[in-house]
Amino acid sequence: MGSSDGTQVSKLYYRIGEVAKLLGVETSAIRHWESEFPGLRPRRTKTGQRMYSQHELQRLQEIKRLRFDQGYTIRGARMVLRSKGLEVREPQDPLVLENDRLRESLIDLRGRILQFIDELERERPHP
To answer: pLDDT tens digits, residue range 79-109?
Structure first.
């Protein structure tokens, strides 16, 4: 997308169709990459539409380059991205498992705190 003076204007977020067009791939390839690269998690609108940030667009460009231009397998591309710090570790990685446990504990704790607050609100005398 260009402006009237010919300079390139970058958007904050891109829909999946726009990303597919920019990359020259099918939307199904992008959805598949989302399932294979855990670090690739676009925002979703209230209607469920995927919205990709500039950072995610760059990551997708790198995935496409690794897969199509350099011939890496999905696993190989994941390893390259991980070595560059652009991809999360494998789900069975002990650090990922520990983070998942901590996340679940925090979600549980949040629920208990909200429940406690609700109970306090119910017990408080109302004028």
So the answer is: 898 888 777 665 566 666 677 778 788 888 8
As a whole number of angstroms, the distance between CA 59 and CA 61 comes to 5
Q: What is the DSSP string of 14-81?
A: EEHHHHHHHHTS-HHHHHHHHHH-TT---EE-TT--EEEEHHHHHHHHHHHIIIIIS---HHHHHHHH
pTM over 0.90, yes/no: no
Backbone angles phi, psi at 2, to 5 degrees: -115, 160
What's the CATH fold of domain 1-88? Answer: Multidrug-efflux Transporter Regulator; Chain: A; Domain 2 (1.10.1660)
Alpha helices in 72-93, H assignment, sequence order: 74-83
